[in-house]
Structure formats: C-alpha cells, structure tokens
Amino acid sequence: MEKRKQKNSVFYISLILIAIMAVWSVAFNESFTKVSDAAFAFLTTDFGWLYLLAMIVFLVFVLYVAFGRYGKIRLGGDDSRPEYSNLTWFGLLFGCGMGVGLVFWGVAEPLTHYLNPVGVESATPEAADFAMKSFFMHWGILPWANYAVIGLALAYFMFRKNKKGLVSSILEPLLGEKMTKGWLGKLVDILAVFATVAGIVTSLGLGTMQINAGFNKLFGIPTTLLVQIGIVVVVSILYIGSAVSGIEKGIKVISDTNLYVAIGLLLVCFLVGPKIEILDSFVNGIGQYIGDFIPDALKVGAYGDNSWLGSWRLFYWAWFIAWAPFVGVFIARISKGRTIREFVLGVVLVPAFASCIWGAVFGSLGINLGETGILSLDVLNEVAATPEVGLFVVLQKYPLGFVLCIVALVSLCAFFITSANSGVYVLSMLTTDGEINPPNSKKILWGMIQSVMAVGLLMAGGLKPLQTISLAAAFPFILIMFAACAAFIKAIKKEKI
C-alpha cells in the first residue's frame, strides 16, 4: 500500500496543486490575474532573450540528431516498425500539437499584423508581407522543433531503453536513476501535469468561445454562459469517450476523419479565394521567412520598445514551451518504430510546411477583403480584435460561405476534441507512473477535472489569467528541455552505429 502511494505521489500532489489553482483563479480572480500578469511580464521582459535562444537551440538539436550519424537509429528495437500509417501518424500529431490553434488564429493573426505591423505603414502591401512572415515564424519550424525535443527523447528512452513514459525518465543519463525516481523527478512530472492541465483547460475555454461564436454567426444562437456550458458538456462527452476507447479506436478515428475534413476545407477555400494572391503570399512569405530567419528569430531590442515582441513572439514561445510536455509525451507514444530522421521530418518539417500553407490560404482570405475594399478597415479591426468570430466573418464573404463556415465549425470541433483527448491520455500516463496504456478510470477523472475547471473559469471570466500563469509556471521547462537535449546526446553516443 505504501509503495502504491509512493507511485501515485505525482497524481495526488498534482491534484492538490490544481485544486488550489482552480479555487484561486475562480474565487479570487482579480488577485490571480494580477499575480499571473506580473509573473509573465517579469519573465518575458527579463528572460525574453532566453526564450529566443532556447527555440534556436531546440532546432539545432533536432537537425543535428536527424541528419547526423544517429539518424538511422530506430525508436524501438532495430527490427521494430511504425504502429501507424504515415497519414494517421501525421493526423494525430498535427491535431494534438497545432490544429485548434491554426483554426482559431488562421484568419485573425495575419489580419492583426496587417493592421498593426511593426516598422511599416498599416494596411499596405508591405504590411501584408510583414503579416505573412510573422505568421510563418510563429507557426513554422521552431514550435515543432520545440515539441520534438521531449517527443524524440522520450520515445527513445521508452521504446529503445524500456523506461517509463514519464518526462523525468529522459533525465536519467544526467541525474542518475536515484535522482529521477526521487523528489526531483517527481517535481519535473508534477510540472508537466500542471502545464498540461492549464494548457488544455484554456484551450477548452477558448475553443468553446469560438464554437459559440460560430453558432451565433450562422444560426443566431446567443453567446451566453449557458450555451457555452452546454458546448463544454457535449464536447467533454465526446473527448472523454474517445480517450477511453483508446488511441487505436476513438482518438485515431476522429483524427483521421478530421484530417480529410481540414484538407478539404483548405482546398475549397483556395479555390473560392484569391488564388494568385494566395500563391504569391505563400512563395513570397516562405522567401522572406527563410531569408530573415536568424535575424527575426533572435530579434529583441536592447533599448527599444519590445511590446509587440512580448505580446506575440515571446507569448507564443512561452505557450509552445508550456505545451511541450503534453504534446511531446503524446507524440512519443505514437512514434514507436520510426527512425530518428523519419521522426524529425514527420514532426518538424512536414507540419511546419502544412502550417505555412494554412496561414497563406486563410491569411490571404482576410487580407484580400481589406485590399479590395470589400470590408472596411473598421470591420477588419473588429475581426482582428475578436479572433473567435473572425474566421466566420471572413468566410461568409466568399462563394459557398455558409457551407465553408459549417465545415470550419466541424473541423474546429474535431481539432478541439483531438487536443483534449490527447491531453487526457497524457495526463493519465503521467499520473500512473508512466503507463503506456493507462486505466480508463484515470482518463475519465482527468477529463471531468478539465471540463469542470473550464466551466468554472468561463463563469469567472478567468481563462486568460490561467493561460498566463501556466506560461510562467512552465518557464523551468526551458532548463528541463536543455537537460533533455544533453541527456539524449549522452545516451545516444553509446549506440553502436
């Protein structure tokens, strides 16, 4: 019994920490907001340079291991082969890592940068170039390299070295078995649980608001708390049910279906949209993205105004680092049998390319309405200010607009469910001592905790502070991920190649 309690200490401590955070954020929302804003402002102001450097380090690390002499090593035994087809694998990792964010920001972010650029006049061709380049930077190769650090290292230790499915397992070559199984390892896993819960709950809330906005725009359903609670309940039943049925059944089926829906939506939007502008934006955006990559990736003013950087780039980098344990653990779980090179190509390069295509299509749909005068600058500013509505406002201005809005709503719900059920699965792994196939009781419990917290925060209007505090709490993961890179290199050098 004592041993079982010891094994579940991560679970119990995480529950207590999350309960305290939930009560504080809901019951004392004002003080929670002040503390979270102050913590995040301090970290991004004083350590902005570290966030920027860290993302470059993660990219160099994954490219080094993929295209160097270790690229042919398999994440498993030498004779192991992938459990999932390339398409299913890509659908699972894309839906888990980025899908819901791209649907949410695909129209609104490029429009925001177009209307409020840095260094050029707003609502001009130069502003459009700035918008696309910025979107590609934020959703391109760097976030996926960040996810790949935990994913690659954990998949290697889980499937090739038979270690537990815990973030702390990665650090064993550096810290030794005693430390990783002791208080330090437990602390790492508790941080991973907290970051995952906070990330999924805020996404659940933001996704609910966008689904409600879509229903309001299309069917006149009011934007009220009662409707949002109803959406959370329905979505929760779907994502908990799919998590309980396992990766092979529920999660895989939803992910596969949504991949086809999202590709179909993308193609039709391209065909009904400004095709030449989309192609030009993509090619020009990629050129500027690659040409200015290092200066942009490391750009921080030592003496100038860094408000845009803090609001956008540093916020994104902190958010992606906060999601790294959750997305990384899930990607590791579905990547057995892949070679290291195959893993990096599939997890870093392919999704980054797909994200840039998505941004070129949906960003151009919005910007084109401003360039052609179909929507006034006042209306475009409203779209940028309310990203949950922006997608539907823009799509309705094109042929088949109503149908496209319906499909976008379906895709949003499916991406939403894929992220949430992946999160439930990962939380269950992390709180059952790294079980690769955790018990359904844990999945149901974590699913219900997430849903109750999301409803509580919607009632308190406190989604943003929870998101902000999760970014601050995940700050130590920069150091943990540096350690993961070093531990992985140390372990892999012992391989006989």
From TrEMBL:
Signal peptide: none annotated. The keyword Protease does not apply. The chain crosses the membrane at residues 9-28, 48-67, 87-108, 141-159, 187-206, 226-247, 259-276, 314-332, 344-367, 400-424, 444-463, 469-489. It is found in: Cell membrane. GO terms for cellular component: plasma membrane. Keywords: Cell membrane, Membrane, Transmembrane, Transmembrane helix, Transport. The keyword Flavoprotein does not apply. GO terms for molecular function: transmembrane transporter activity. It is a multi-pass membrane protein. PANTHER family: HIGH-AFFINITY CHOLINE TRANSPORT PROTEIN, HIGH-AFFINITY CHOLINE TRANSPORT PROTEIN-RELATED. Belongs to the BCCT transporter (TC 2.A.15) family. NCBIfam families: bcct. This is BCCT family transporter. It comes from Sellimonas intestinalis.
